[in-house]
Write a structure and sequence with these properties.
By secondary structure, the protein is an alpha/beta fold.
Amino acid sequence: MNDGKVDWHGNIVAVATPFTQDGALDEVRFKANIAQLLDEGADGIAVCGCTGEAWALDPEERMQLFRWARAVIGPKVPLIGGTTAIRTDRTIALSRAAIEAGCDGVLLMPPYYAVIGPREIKAHLEAVSTGLRAPIFLYNMPKRTSINMSPALLAELARIEWVVALKQSSNDFNELEATLDACGERISVFAGHSAERGFAAVMLGCPGFVSSLEAQVMGREAIALYALARAGRVEEGRRVQQRCIALDKAMRQVGTFPANMKSAMNLLGRHGGHCRSPLLDLDAAETTRVAAILDGLGLTPRAAAA
């Protein structure tokens, strides 16, 4: 329950984890990406989420990324670290280490693969809350876990002491609205899929959203979407949201996420880096398609000058 424990809001960017060509963590690109996003107005940084290829990282690599991120961020904005694991004891241990490494809170999905039920999800989170005693940013991502936590279940989970926020990434916008109604007074309900609905979510009452593709490809333009919504600048916000939708829809047709996002970042001189296997970097033909998408949206210097 978020009874004043945190004041997280705005556009929290789930950042990429750049790797070198041989698969090592790329410290230079990782830090440069976060610094650029902060300069462009990001209100928070989430490390080791789905966008950050958390599944490909060893525990110590996650801690290293958290330390690097904290060093760049300083006290400016919240740092949320992904610590999802299958076993409860390992989740607690990883989460404690994340807080010690500088995270302000941890991002947790229900344990994946085991496909546990509501009673087990609640018991898991109660144990983590008791064992951690630090802010938990719950993450409902059915695509990755095969578990869709209903608004009714989320209302129960919102009563757990250290569950303070939620990223609602159900594809159904009605579920986002229902979740706000069910537990928006107890925890901070952030929207996922912000490329499609970030502006609408804030207008609906969300304190913010967790962004990914659009923020790291479009930069300042997309990051400003939260501020546009808060200011009630509807026409400008609608225009930016439509451009985010166009980018998201087109990029979904090329390669695998986040390899396609990293390709776009690299083409724009941002800091995507390489992927880690089994993901593959885009091939030449796919990269050409991504370049055409960026050109079509006026995001490349060549397109801007035309």
